[in-house]
Design brief:
Elements (H helix, E strand, L loop, with lengths): L1 E4 L5 E2 L6 E4 L7 E7 L4 E7 L5 E3 L2 H4 L14 E3 L5 E8 L4 E2 L3 E4 L9 E3 L6 E3 L4 E8 L4 E8 L5 E7 L4 E8 H5 L10 E8 L2 E10 L7 E6 L5 E6 L4 E13 L2 E16 L5 H8 L7 E4 L5 E15 L2 E10 L3 E3 L1
Parallel strand pairs: 2-10, 12-18
Antiparallel strand pairs: 1-3, 3-6, 4-5, 4-8, 7-16, 8-9, 8-10, 11-13, 13-16, 14-15, 14-17, 17-18, 19-20, 19-23, 21-22, 22-25, 22-26, 23-24, 24-25
Length: about 325
Amino acid sequence: MRLFKSPYSYSSASGNDLFRFDSIDSTKPVEVAFHTADGTLLGTRRYYGRTSVDVSPRAFLRTLLSPTPVVVDSTLFLRPVGRDAAIYLRYGLQQLHSPVVGFTASRHHHDSPAPLVAHAEPRRLAEGECDEVAILVESGVMLQARGRIGAGEWSELARMGTSESGVHILAVAYADLLTLTDQPHSEQRVEVEILADGEVLCGVDYILAESEPQGVRVAWVDSEGAIAYHTFGHLPECELLSSRVVVEAGSGVESLAVESWRRWRVESGRLSAAEWERLSEALGSPRLWVVERDGGVVEVVAEESRAVATGPLSHTLSLTLREARKQQHL
């Protein structure tokens, strides 16, 4: 049994990259075991009567890749869990060992270093909010983030040396961008760049926006496996729903608990074509959240969604979201 082909490192976990084996004795069963890079067994697959076989790791990678929002008060680099995974395979009677291969939650293959930025248009950020820029880098790299207004001087926002290879993020806090301007709440544009060992890796522009007191900030996993955000401030609604859990007892009906959950209805208002395209990724995202003003993160599911484009300047998106997990009160 021979390992003929392995996926490229940092392949997409949702893609069709396979481990291919050939020169198999079809008269004997063969077993392929999946392990994390630290040796933890994820599971095995057995094959019979085959001279060659293609093996997909997707089912096992789903248990390892689970991007979630990171809420911060200050701008910094982080190595968040659930953004990438490294696995290897053991196979054959001799328990041979495949190379360790890294996978990411992006829908695309990337060579390191690389920005994991799905859309290039400016991002709006208001008081109390944060955002992220995801990048793929190796260990031993010095990361630096800097920002400026217009053609002004660059100011350092964060710095970190990487100790692991894989996906890192720059978590961007509004408060730190505000220090770069003397005109708060004036739709100022802030240019942010990320450098790897002194070379510019990527840049993102932010618009310092007015806060939406009743706005609902929604987060989702975008096509690059990063967390994207948008604050829906156009007439949002939030309602609390409840139901009672009851059982029939000898003396009648007995109440065991009350379940409650929240439901949000949000609408974008008019969007540019680029903004509409970015927000439309939320409709097909595997996971969504509402980020609350106190920093809490609530996982939600989309009960209803609608994206409408009726002309070049008339794009809207609306979502009905409810808590993924009901709260029980005894």
